Amino acid sequence: MKPKYLPLTATIVIFVLSYALCVMQYPNILSTRVVGNLLTDNAFLGIAAVGMTFVILSGGIDLSIGSVIAFTGVFLAVVLENTGIHPLAAFALALMIATLFGALMGAIIHYLEMPAFIVTLAGMFLARGMAFVLSIDSIAIKHPFYGTLKGFYYKLPGGGRISLIGGLMLLVFAIGILIAHRTRFGTDVYALGGGTATAKLMGVPVGRTTILIYALSGLLAGLSGIVFSLYTSAGYSLAAVGVELDAITAVVIGGTLLTGGSGFVAGTFIGILIQGLIQTYITFDGSLSSWWTKILIGLLLFVFILMQKGIVYASRSKQRHA
Amino acid sequence: MTAILRGYALRLLPQLIALAVILLMVSLVFPGFFRLEIQNGRLYGSLIDILNRGAPVVLLAIGMTVVIATKGIDLSVGAVAASSITSGHSLAMTLVITLGTGLLCGLWNGVLVAILDIQPIIATLVLMVAGRGIAQLVTEGAILTFNDPGLIFLGSGSFAWLPLPVIIWLVFGILVALIVRKTALGMLIEAIGVNRQASTLSGVLTPVLLIAAYMLSGLCAAIAGIIAAADIKGADANNAGLWLELDAILAVVIGGTSLLGGRFSIAASVLGAIIIQSINTGILLSGFPPEFNLIIKAAIIVFILVLQSPPVRNAFTFVALLRAGRKPTEGQAR
Amino acid sequence: MQPNGENLLSATRIDKVFPGARALDKVDFHLRRGEVHALLGENGAGKSTLVKCLTGAYRRDGGTILLDGVEVDPRDTFNAQKLGIGTVYQEVNLLPNLSVAENLFLGRQPRRFGLVDVGAMNRQARALLDDYELDLDVTRALDSYSVAIQQVVAIARAVDLSGKVLILDEPTASLDAHEVEMLFRIVRRLKARGLGIVFITHFLEQVYEISDRITVLRNGQLVGTRETATLERRDLISMMIGRELAAEIRSAREGQVVAGPVRYRFENYGRKGHIAPFDLDIRAGEVVGIAGLLGSGRTETAEILFGAHRADSGMAEVDGRAVQLSSPRRAIAHRFGFCPEDRKTAGIVGDLSVRENIVLALQARRGWTRPLSRTEQNRIADHYIRALDIRTADREKPIRLLSGGNQQKAILARWLATEPEFLILDEPTRGIDVGAHAEIVRLIEGLREKGMSLMVISSEIEELVAYSTRIVVLRDRQHVAALEGNRITADQIIEAIASANERGAA
User: A131 CA to chain C: closest CA distance, Å?
Assistant: First the structure.
């Protein structure tokens, strides 16, 4: 097997094993109802995690996505409450703002040569702050169009349903996979992760790619914000705190190297499923403290970091002796 | 000696000016800002309030400064601050367990960074994610209430007219600064941060110092956790330390220590933390809606970062070199 | 030689000036169609500067470049590539995490309906590599292949993109004999296709195996261009390292050297993959010069003695007692000192002041609990700034702002401050101007007279002759010869390196 598939395979094996374990204890987890809910509940996280995957593949990080999600939610709520704009137009506006916001961060990272960590940290404060300025209260969204959207779903055999937002997440993942592996931009993202200096020497437009990557992450964070507002039917400036951390975790558990250059969008999907599964299990169990989720995820994170370190070390020593 | 003092003053000048400007602006909108009064043997006033409320971030910033000076970063401090709170023991026992936990977390981070050679941001991410979970497990998710008078005293007592948290961070900060600057630690840490390989080749005990830096950061986090817990008379593992790591990093950055390691100043980071708290308190007092807090914070980071960014700094260096009468060499320009 | 019609690439009177150093001084270089042209010279001779001027990585300060008789002025490497000049470096400049096919077609992947046609890309990649006798799984990541194959992929990409001139910069440095053979088959094939190939290497036997002509640079100047077939090996070496000055400097030294007792003894000391086990005795008041071409194991010898890499065989003795030199700290405890070759990454601590850089090793040895007082630091720093004539505005200036020579002297001061008894200097005069050069040579002489043991690595033969009391010659990561007393002459050293090379080539 190609070594680049090793982390992904490990992720899939862990997922299948833990799923099997869960099913043995609670056969219900296999039902389409639970699976459908798993997709719906994690839709916003999954969509944001796709953007995060691209950012991390390029060797960067984006701490702003949780705040962008909250901002988008509040923005939609405020706009829909105070104006007569149709939600679809509001969606477009929100996506545009989020995309521009990401592009701006990418431009600062590239042109001012500043670490992505700090730039997106500032972005995180800024987006959250703008959400606060719009409204500090939780605003319910009562627009009838929201009800219509929520009414869309695909019925699965066995009573489960794939909601609109769950389906949207699947679609985003599919498009993400296509972009990563079937476009020049996708290859350029991997190239940046392999080494900015070399990528530049080989003709990769580093500046344009960096800006596009953060714009994409912003766009998907905005989309995730829309999904989140559909999911909760509200906009709240304190919502989605720490989502960036969950997204990073999903990406790493999904087998993507945090140092960039190696990984798969599909792996992130499994990463999301693993996180969702742990939560579902704890809900089913009922007696376990929900804090176990964090601990287990932290543990998984550690195992994956060690494993990646091992793979990098092994491939390096192989090269030395080659 | 005076030259050295002047050097210190010069180093802290930007932070002092920033702080003065912020305080002045607040006092314009809120006239009673500078008023201090003594009640029950304790000073009261907005300034004292800033010093008091800023305590956790100040403490975290002290440890974070040293870690960042080694070209590292410690994302786990918030979670460590939250997880180091235990209850049901005597005051002494609580303190020992808490501080021990902090040191242990630091040891863990340090080993990952120094021995396993994992990037600091990734290594400390593990505890950032899991630490809070562990803390919540220990406290069983509930907000514990402390009845121990000793612990409450730590959070809200006073000594020599000052609130105890202020005394704690003052003493601790001075202690760390003295240890770092009166021994050779400071220089060795800066050397590691600037060039780890050259330092190791010069005989610096790199791994030990790296681990020590992360342990100091863990210790600071633990003390910050105790103060935060004692202040609200309860340990809220869910919320204690939330975003604190980012505030601490921000304080260090405002203090002018580069995220790329090297030169650091603990005093400047403490000032940075006080600046952040002054902004928070100031916005609150001046009747601005607190929601502007974050936007102003973001604006300040962006401003300071732009000044610190390589292209801008290179432009300054270039001008300085031109003045000195020689062109920058190829290597320096890069 | 006059540029004429058969020249594919003609560079005339190329100048390149860096602040404080003239990197290229009116250098001529002519490359014919269908020839392999070796570009030789020691480190700092100007080879890579010349290549960078040809490929547009540097803008030259003077001179003209003709490609196919047309004057060209490559702005950057892409522009040069488009004009027809491609380069492959020792450090493979491809992306290890991308697949072979992606590396070959990065930025120009075949597309269908706006999406990359991976099937077509892989097919084209396979077709391209067929020309190079490579049958690879082009979908695998590049780093799953050996460096040799990565090198060939890089060549394939460069030739496919440019197609007239191929510059190979130390392509064989990390290849074994078998892989070099494979690479050379490909080079011959490209040569037959009419490409002009510039080949930079430090393996002389490879030069004689593959090249048609040789151009030698030294100190930024052209020494000459010769037909390989008619150039004697020892003539080539003396072209490269020069020896005109050697006799003069040597005769300037007065009296005979009286060395003290053996202080350091290394027996069967070595490390796999770095340097073959060697025996070495070093006396007090002795300068052991290490001679050998680049890549012969000079730096590796220094690093293993200093504990920067742990020895995996043999034993070390200091004053008759067995010691473990497993880390720089251990070595420093035995009063070793080491000025590394790569000043920037392993020597200076750039943002710290000259003072801090000077006291760093002494402070590290004392431990953090016993700080040197500021007064003491100032005294030490001032002392060495004066003694070594380190030119700096003041001792608090960040060391990165100093010139190379002054940085080197500050690193030297760092070790002298620890009062070392055994000092290892790796290329102490590399990249510094002539004045500072002479000062450092004098300094080495002075330290030896005081009874210190020194080991000095240098590419400059006349320099080694000037200060060495003994010369160890290295080749292929082995210690192959030792010269003492009046056998230390430039001729003898060149002879030793050359004969060692001939033995190796045979």
Answer: 38
Q: Does C498 lie at the interface with B, CB-CB under 8 angstroms?
A: no
What are A135-162's pLDDT values in tens digits? 888 899 888 888 888 888 888 887 788 8
Q: Do B174 and B323 fall into the same domain?
A: no
Q: Which residue has the higher pLDDT, C175 or A11?
A: A11
Q: Is the Cβ–Cβ distance between B60 and B247 less than 8 Å?
A: yes
State the greatest distance between any 2 C-alpha atoms of chain B, in Å, as a whole number. 68
* Mean pLDDT calculated for residue range A123-143: 88
Q: Determine, for residues C20 and B202 on separate chains, whether the beta-carbon distance falls below 8 Å.
A: no
Question: Same domain, yes or no, for B35 and B25?
Answer: yes
**Contact call for B199 and C360, based on CB within 8 A:** yes
Using alpha carbons, list the distances in angstroms from residue C463 to A102, A242, B303, C249, C329.
Answer: 58, 63, 53, 8, 30
Regarding whether B163 and B244 lie in a shared domain, the answer is yes
One-letter amino acid for residue C328 of the chain? P
Task: Specify the CATH number for the domain of residue A30.
Answer: 1.10.3470
Give the pLDDT band (50/70/90) at residue B250: confident
- Tokens 């080949």 sit on residue: C199
- Domain of residue A122 covers 3-321
Question: What's the pLDDT tens digit per position in B43-70?
Answer: 778 888 888 888 889 999 999 999 999 9
Which residues constitute the domain of residue B317? 292-334
Contact C186, C152 (CB under 8 A): yes
Q: Is B312 on the interface with A (CB under 8 A)?
A: yes
Q: What is the pLDDT of residue B47?
A: 84
Q: Can you give the pLDDT at residue C428? A: 85
Give backbone dihedrals phi and psi of B238, rounded to 5 degrees, phi first.
-75, -45
Instruction: Please answer yes or no on whether A305 and B126 come within 8 Å at the CB atom.
Output: yes
B3 is a domain residue:
no
Q: pLDDT at residue A315 above 80?
A: no
Residue to mutate among B125, B127, B293, B297, with most A CBs inside 10 A, is B125
Q: Give the distance from residue A15's alpha carbon to the nearest chain C alpha carbon, in angstroms.
A: 25
Residue B162 maps to a domain: yes
* Residue A293: its H or E element: helix A291-321
Residue B122 and residue B57 in one domain: yes
| Residue C205, C-beta contacts closer than 8 angstroms, at least 6 positions apart | C501, C504, C505
Which residues of chain B from 233 to 272 reach within 8 Å of chain A, CB to CB? 242, 246, 249-250, 253, 259
In whole angstroms, give the CA distance from residue A289 to residue B140: 7
- Does C144 sit within 8 Å of A183, measured CB to CB? no
User: Which residues of chain C have a CB within 8 Å of the CB of A322?
Assistant: 146-148
Q: Report the distance separating Cα B151 and Cα B147, nearest Å.
A: 8
User: What's the gap in Å between the CA of A123 and the closest CA on chain B?
Assistant: 7
State the Cα–Cα distance between residues B196 and A69, nearest whole angstrom.
40
Q: C371 and B182 in contact by Cβ < 8 A? A: yes
CB contact under 8 A, A129 and B295: yes
Cα–Cα–Cα angle for C433, C434, C438, rounded to 5 degrees? 120
Q: In this structure, are B309 and B175 located in the same domain?
A: no
Cβ atoms of B146 and B235 closer than 8 Å: yes
Same domain, B207 and B332: no
Instruction: ipTM value, please give it.
Output: 0.84
Report all structural domains of chain C as residue ranges with CATH numbers, in order of start.
7-97+141-231 (3.40.50.300), 256-335+421-506 (3.40.50.300), 347-419 (no CATH)
Confirm or reject contact between B298 and chain A (CB < 8 A).
yes
Task: Residue C363: list chain B partners with CB under 8 A.
Answer: 184, 187-188
- Which residues have CB under 8 Å from B22's CB, separation 6+? B275, B278, B279, B282
Cβ neighbours of residue C276 under 8 Å, at least 6 residues apart?
Answer: C270, C297, C477, C478, C479
Cβ pair C143:A261 closer than 8 A: no
